[in-house]
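Q: Given only this backbone (222 positions), what sequence would you predict?
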């Protein structure tokens, strides 16, 4: 009989981790909205975190969406770039292995942060490794992203980036956790931070990885 950890490794896909991180971000934004009556949650973060050219019209439209729709398969598909059918399948996989559940009160899907952190800390760099490649224009990630800027030193000549035509920087290309990550992070500053830290874990040596795990745990538990 397989253990729960073995089942996770066999069943989970990279987009599942991506979607779980999006659920954490939505949950944190919804708490801010309810606690502080913020009309446009997280919009105040937008102007100092992006690594690409801003599209003001796009941003205005994005923050007008309701949280009710954001948690639906359709909403998650729109915000992550994962197809609606695959979002549905992803949530089923996460729920089946205890990485997510349906909240009894809201009926929204909710990530199991403890299980998610355990997998990220001990398994993600082996199951979904990252290997830098050609020099391209893109969005800074790992220790080059704003979430880690100035906190860790790089020994390399180039930074790490997700390939993207709107990216402001040039660096070594790193394949993101899922192909639509560059699109999705433009809509969500928290998600950008989470995924950049994930890359620091996927790419980093011992010190960088340990630092990123601790920082990510703090952010996911906010």
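A: Predicted residues:
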């Amino acid at each position: 009989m397989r253990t729960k950890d073995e089942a996770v490794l066999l069943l989970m896909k990279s987009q599942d981790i991506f979607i779980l991180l999006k659920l954490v971000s939505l949950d944190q934004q919804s708490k801010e909205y309810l606690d502080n009556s913020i009309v446009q949650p997280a919009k105040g973060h937008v102007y100092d975190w992006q690594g690409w050219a801003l599209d003001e019209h796009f941003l205005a439209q994005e923050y007008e969406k309701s949280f009710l729709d954001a948690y639906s398969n359709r909403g998650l598909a729109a915000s992550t770039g994962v197809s609606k059918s695959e979002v549905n399948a992803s949530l089923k996989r996460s729920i089946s292995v205890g990485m997510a559940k349906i909240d009894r009160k809201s009926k929204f899907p909710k990530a199991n942060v403890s299980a998610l952190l355990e997998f990220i800390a001990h398994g993600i760099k082996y199951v979904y490794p990252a290997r830098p490649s050609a020099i391209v224009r893109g969005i800074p990630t790992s220790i080059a992203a704003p979430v880690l800027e100035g906190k860790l030193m790089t020994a390399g000549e180039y930074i790490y980036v997700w390939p993207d035509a709107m990216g402001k920087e040039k660096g070594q290309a790193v394949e993101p956790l899922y192909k639509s990550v560059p699109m999705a992070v433009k809509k969500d500053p928290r998600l950008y931070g989470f995924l950049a830290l994930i890359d620091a874990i996927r790419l980093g040596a011992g010190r960088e990885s340990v630092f990123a795990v601790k920082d990510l745990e703090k952010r996911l538990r906010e």
